[in-house]
């Protein structure tokens, strides 16, 4: 019989611990949703379920029906975290969400994500970006650059 050593819980790296010490969260975190379809609404639901100290403050979509549907769905599930978020409609509506949020969820069609991701990290925002992050070589290069900027700024990019 082979005896294995007891499992131990890995300790977090000191680098990760240092980041949390240097950057306390704002309270509450302002969550912005860009792309209000089913996946975007689901990702926002998960973010709101993960921490009661997160509020949905802004949403953006090209279609007003999608934005209204996401707000209503999330308000029913999280009434204390979703009051009356600002709603922005149109192809450039994402810029307003980036400007007014602490954390951005990017769930737009993938052809737009690389550009939006770059703008979000340049603005100093933490980002959850749905996959695929890009659809062509230029987009992938942009995402790689965005990841470098996020690392330099100590931003979370998921």
Write the layout of secondary structure elements.
Layout (H helix, E strand, L loop, with lengths): L13 H9 L6 E6 L3 H13 L3 E8 L2 H14 L8 E4 L4 H7 L2 E4 L3 H13 L3 E4 L7 H16 L6
Parallel strand pairs: 1-2, 1-4, 2-3, 4-5
Helix pairs in contact: 2-3, 5-6
Nearest-integer average pLDDT: 89
Count of alpha/pi helices: 6
How far is the first residue's CA from the last residue's CA? 42 Å
Low-confidence stretches: 12-17
Q: Could you estimate the helical fraction of the residues in percent?
A: 40-55%
Largest β-sheet summary: 5 strands, parallel
Structural class: alpha/beta
Order of helices and strands: HEHEHEHEHEH
At a glance:
The chain is an alpha/beta fold and 158 residues long. The protein has helices at 14-22, 38-50, 64-77, 94-100, 110-122, 137-152, and strands at residues 29-34, 54-61, 86-89, 103-106, 126-129.
Write up this protein.
This protein is α/β, with parallel strands linked by helices and 158 residues long. It is built from six helices and five strands; from the N terminus they run αβαβαβαβαβα. The chain has helices spanning 14-22, 38-50, 64-77, 94-100, 110-122, 137-152; strands at 29-34, 54-61, 86-89, 103-106, 126-129. The protein has a five-stranded parallel β-sheet with strand order 3-2-1-4-5, sandwiched between helices. Helix 2 (38-50) runs parallel beside helix 3 and helix 5 packs parallel to helix 6. The longest helix is centred in the C-terminal third of the chain and has 16 residues, at 137-152. It is globular and about 40 Å long. The N and C termini lie far apart (42 Å).
